[in-house]
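Reopening this ticket.

The earlier resolution said the output was attached, but the attachment link was broken on my side. Pasting everything inline this time so it's all in one place.
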Amino acid sequence: MADVLILAIETATGCGSVSITRGDGATGKVLGENTLQPEVTHSRRLLGAVSALMEGLSLNWNDLHGIAVSQGPGSFTGLRIGMAAAKGIAMAADRPLIGVPTLDGLALQLTPGNKPVYLVLDARKQQVYAACYQLQEGCWQRTGEVEVLSPEELSAKITTPTVVAGPGVAACSQQLQDNPQGELLSSALLHPRAASIGFCGAALLTQRDFVGEENPVPLYVRASEAELNLKRKGGLNN
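Inline output:
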């Protein structure tokens, strides 16, 4: 696992990134990482950023062991751009494509602690994407499915001392401040990174335990606005 070389793409939020990592989160190393704005960056420019990173590290496509991509939840536009780019690269390079849930990648950045952690991303519309993680055998493990919740619904789930962290903290801080069991971390302290997606991807590739195998799809969790509008007009079955 120490030698697994991964190209990773993370475009779930307004500040995306691409990276090259070697190894997993325990002993791995970030060889290079660039940030970008996926929602205003054409997919061709994203591919250009990947090529520049590869050239800067003097790597060939054959050097890679796999392509990891952040699956979501997150920005619908960003996820579509990132997934399309990752699939194109994986096909052209003939390398496996590894889907990594965005919040699982975020959990890799957590420091050890004895409290459960709810990681949150801003889902807009006064909601957050949220999932709970517990430290098990030295690794943060998700204890359930990723959900889309209102701040009030998230607060109702926090009945024991729990840390709330991630870019979505600002979207629910007002409601959670009244919950004595919730400990809020600044949203600036934790943000999705391609490097974390790469480390998770290396572990999944080694275990052959990655979602969707050769054809991962975005994990939107919530229907898009276009789908909701179509459903309101009777274009989709209930």
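Reporter confirms the inline version is readable. Residues 42 and 159 are 44 Å apart (CA to CA). The mean pLDDT is 89.
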